[in-house]
């Protein structure tokens, strides 16, 4: 995929799940004020999809956009269902992926509710620092749940 391409756009049914071999992606949704809110960043060696849309085959509430030129290993819904039907090993792989995604989501919810904006930014730097160079300040601020101004203040505080 090229930088700026969408893996999935809001309102469309997600037909694929992908392993990121190279590159990074931003997952976001629109809030009630029609503002883009970054839900997560996905980088190399991780899986990316609009999971609810993929599993239920219903329109996605999320958009997933490439932050840079990326290489993906992709499987579509029908082929994955065929693998599940034929192989217990693939059923186990699917279960493990679902469990990992649930744990990621639970950790993110805990971070949002229990860490300060500064701590969240420091965590992002430590765990996915490469993303900061590839996305906008607005995307990072929305991911952290702060304004752009607050993010600038945090960055200044950290650099001193």
Structure description:
With 160 residues, the chain is α+β, with helices and mostly antiparallel strands. It has one domain: Jelly Rolls, CATH 2.60.120.10. It contains 6 helices and 7 strands; from the N terminus they run βββββαββααααα. It has helices at 51-56, 77-86, 88-114, 117-132, 137-144, 148-159, and strands spanning 6-8, 16-22, 24-30, 36-43, 47-48, 63-66, 71-76. The chain has a 4-stranded antiparallel beta sheet with strand order 1-6-3-4. The chain has a 3-stranded antiparallel beta sheet with strand order 5-2-7. β3 (24-30) and β4 form a beta hairpin. The longest helix has 27 residues, at 88-114.
Secondary structure layout:
Layout: E1 6-8, E2 16-22, E3 24-30, E4 36-43, E5 47-48, H1 51-56, E6 63-66, E7 71-76, H2 77-86, H3 88-114, H4 117-132, H5 137-144, H6 148-159
Antiparallel strand pairs: 1-6, 2-5, 2-7, 3-4, 3-6
Helix pairs in contact: 2-3
From N to C, what is the helix and strand string?
Answer: EEEEEHEEHHHHH
**CATH fourth-tier homologous superfamily:** Jelly Rolls
Number of spatially distinct domains: 1
CATH class: Mainly Beta
Task: Indicate the radius of gyration in whole angstroms.
Answer: 17 Å
β-sheet strand percentage = 15-25%
Mean pLDDT: 92
**Portion in helices:** 40-55%
- Beta strands, count: 7
- Catalogue the unreliable spans: none
CATH topology: Jelly Rolls
Q: Please state the overall shape, judged from the principal axes of the Cα atoms.
A: elongated
- State the CATH architecture: Sandwich
| Strand line-up of the largest beta sheet | 1-6-3-4
Number of helices: 6
